[in-house]
Specification:
The chain contains seven helices and two strands, in the order H-H-H-H-E-E-H-H-H. It is mostly helical. The protein has one domain: Orthogonal Bundle (Arc Repressor Mutant, subunit A), CATH 1.10.10.10.
Length: about 150
């Protein structure tokens, strides 16, 4: 149990440090932590995901995602459109400005994370471990690949 507590504590600390370091970039882009996560969750190289899929990725409910999507729309980063595969639902599509902002957030996160100081072999081992954890948790097995 002590090992598990240590891991959870370390993950929390790394997350907090990274988020704090990201604040200037998020502020400049007029993003909150939640809106930045939503940008990250929408891969512009794939078809625009249904709103329900984005909500699942963010572990939030539909009304929270609607609020987040509205903020992204107000900033010109995203648009909600009818799902071409299911006209009853909507997809969240990034605009050109949203794709640029997403790229800036990802680049800043990669620079800000304490993981950046690890050597490549440690990063490969950690990536494998975290992928296994994601597969055994409540997240979809392909969550890390999708984001």
């Amino acid at each position: 149990m002590d090992d598990l507590l240590g891991v959870v504590r370390a993950v929390h600390e790394i997350s907090m440090v990274t988020n704090t370091r990201l604040e200037p970039v998020l502020s400049r882009l007029r993003l909150t932590y939640q809106t930045a996560q939503a940008l990250w969750a929408v891969d512009p190289d794939l078809p625009a995901p249904p709103m329900r899929a984005v909500a699942q990725r963010l572990h939030c409910n539909a009304s929270n995602l609607t609020f987040i999507a509205k903020q992204l729309e107000d900033r010109g980063y995203a648009a909600r459109r009818r799902d071409p595969r299911d006209g009853r639902s909507s997809v969240l599509e990034l605009t050109a400005a949203g794709v640029r902002a997403r790229g800036e957030v990802i680049e800043a996160a990669l620079e800000a994370t304490p993981f950046a100081a690890l050597p490549p072999e440690d990063l490969r081992a950690l990536a494998g471990t975290l992928a296994r954890v994601a597969e055994t948790g409540s997240a979809p097995a392909n969550l890390l690949q999708d984001l």
